[in-house]
Amino acid sequence: IIAMDPLVFRAASEADVPALVELVTCAYRGPSSRAGWTTEADFLEGQRIDAIGVAADIEKADSIVLLAE
Q1: For 2-52, what is each residue's pLDDT tens digit?
Q2: Who is most buried in 8, 11, 49, 50, counting CB within 10 A?
Q3: Contact status, residue 56 vs residue 66, Cβ threshold 8 Å
């Protein structure tokens, strides 16, 4: 049995934008993504996500970007 702290869920804020961009980029397009099944690096080029788009999603009235910590 491994004891772990419970996950805490919260809505993302503007301050989370840089970390979210980095996380998504690493998961889908970054060099480390090639070690897993989520990579798009061999199929698509260019930027997958940007700070303007993430901030817009966070600010949308009928949208929530949920983070688990």
Answers
A1: 667 888 899 999 999 999 998 888 776 666 655 666 666 566 666 778 999
A2: 49
A3: no
